[in-house]
Amino acid sequence: MFGEDILKACNVWKARGNFPHDKKVKLMCSYCKKHSDKFVPDPYYGEAEGTDLLEDACESLLDSIRVES
């Protein structure tokens, strides 16, 4: 499970009725290599920097999945 930020992730878990184990939870920004942001800005109302941040995180996430498989 990936969360844009802690509050949004918490609301998703609360709606599901259970909290996942720590190893299954990771914030999207933890995958960023080029950005040091802690939270993903709102992609709808945010600036282009949010898209750049997500692109950075997704590239690193894909790399980590490739290494694991």
Question: What can you tell me about this protein's structure?
Answer:
InterPro entries: LMW-PTP. The protein has a two-stranded parallel sheet with strand order 1-2. The chain has helices at residues 6-16, 48-68; strands spanning 2-3, 26-27. With 69 residues, it is mainly α. It has one domain: Response regulator (Rossmann fold, 3-Layer(aba) Sandwich). Strand 1, helix 1 and strand 2 (26-27) form a beta-alpha-beta unit.
Q: What is the rounded Rg? A: 13 Å
Q: Could you state the order of secondary-structure elements as H and E? A: EHEH
**First CA to last CA: what distance?**
18 Å
The major pleated sheet works out as: 2 strands, parallel
Domains counted in the coordinates: how many? 1
Structural class: mainly alpha
Strand order of the largest sheet: 1-2
Content of β-strand: 5-15%
Named at the architecture level, the CATH assignment is 3-Layer(aba) Sandwich
- Count of DSSP E strands? 2
Question: How would you describe the shape?
Answer: flat
Short synopsis of the structure:
This protein has helices at residues 6-16, 48-68, and strands at 2-3, 26-27.
Summarize the helices and strands and which ones pair or pack:
Blueprint: E1 2-3, H1 6-16, E2 26-27, H2 48-68
Parallel strand pairs: 1-2
Organism: Arabidopsis thaliana (Mouse-ear cress)
InterPro entries: LMW-PTP
Protein name: Phosphotyrosine protein phosphatase I domain-containing protein
Question: Main traits of this protein?
Answer:
single chain; 69 residues; mainly alpha; Rossmann fold; two-stranded parallel sheet; 2 helices; 2 strands; 46% helix; Phosphotyrosine protein phosphatase I domain-containing protein; LMW-PTP
